[in-house]
Design a protein that fits this description.
The chain has helices at 30-33, 115-127, 147-159, 175-182, 197-204, 264-270, 287-293, 299-314; strands spanning 2-9, 12-16, 24-28, 48-52, 69-74, 80-84, 92-97, 101-106, 132-136, 164-166, 186-191, 215-216, 221-222, 230-233, 239-242. By secondary structure, the chain is of the alpha/beta class. It folds into 3 domains: 2-76, OB fold (Dihydrolipoamide Acetyltransferase, E2P) (Beta Barrel), CATH 2.40.50.140; 81-242, P-loop containing nucleotide triphosphate hydrolases (Rossmann fold); 256-314, Probable gtpase engc, domain 3 (Ribonucleotide Reductase Protein R1, domain 1), CATH 1.10.40. Strands 10-9-8-11-15-14 form a 6-stranded mixed sheet, with helices on both faces. Strands 1-2-3-5-4 form a 5-stranded mixed β-barrel. The protein is globular and about 70 Å long.
Length: 316
Amino acid sequence: MEATVVKHTGSHYLLTVLPEWALFPAVLRGKMRQKGSSATNPVAVGDCVEFTLPEGLQPGQMPDTENPAVITEILPRRNYIIRRSTNLSRQSHIIASNVDMAFIIVTINFPEVKLPFLDRLLVTCEVYGVPVTIVLNKSDLYGPEHRERVAAFHEIYEGAGYPVMDVSVSEGTGIGALREACSGKVCLFSGASGVGKSSLIKALDPALNPRTGEISQSHLQGKHTTTFYEMYRLASGGYIIDTPGIRGFGLVYLEKEEIALYFPEMLKVSRDCRFTPCTHTHEPGCAVKAAVEDGIISYERYSSYLGMLEEEQKYR
């Protein structure tokens, strides 16, 4: 039997057979946990899995916490989002799998967007085939003093090929468009702590009640509110995977020579570089460096690329 993982808390999972929404508990077969996985979580929210029902279950009965189903196999993933784990005993952590659209939530301020963090998320989505839309949240808080930064943000990321949506929960701006964009899809909501993911989910469907938190005034960073990864069903159609606020995002399984391939605006001009391969750092006749100098590729994105090269060298 097959089902989709909609929540995991430690070694316990909730499954459902989509599109039905009848959740039941499951555990992972012991030998699967040791099956050579380099990830801290061998099973992720969004995974399609095979499972067996507990012995003695009568027809019409559902597994419960006393007699959970048992996950026996993880089916091949269509795509997934992965990051370098903070747990040094393992290499990586899978954030979610089988995602139709990743909505990366950012804020210009409250807290301030960190472009290198955003760019690492975008590169990972490019590597693993996850379509992306950037959601610029809390637009009601941006006064005239922020107008230039908001316009620059749109220019940088729309120029790189990514849609950018401006939304505000308190004013309702963009909520209808975001709800429509989620309809019929499995969508990931991800971003740094404090950018308002949980409030956005509640605005999309007031019946849902993900935890929300305040901004830490000392650092203007959000406090973690979502402890576990969880999928929600929207009344308007579609599903949202909510994630804990992410404070750091390291790349995995990516050679430094490959990184530039996952910057769409750099890939577009790199075929005109004099040398192949080209690192776009010191080579003469580099079309990417020329495009940065001409303002065709943003300096901010190029700076993120250089930072990723240094990061990959550090981990080798």
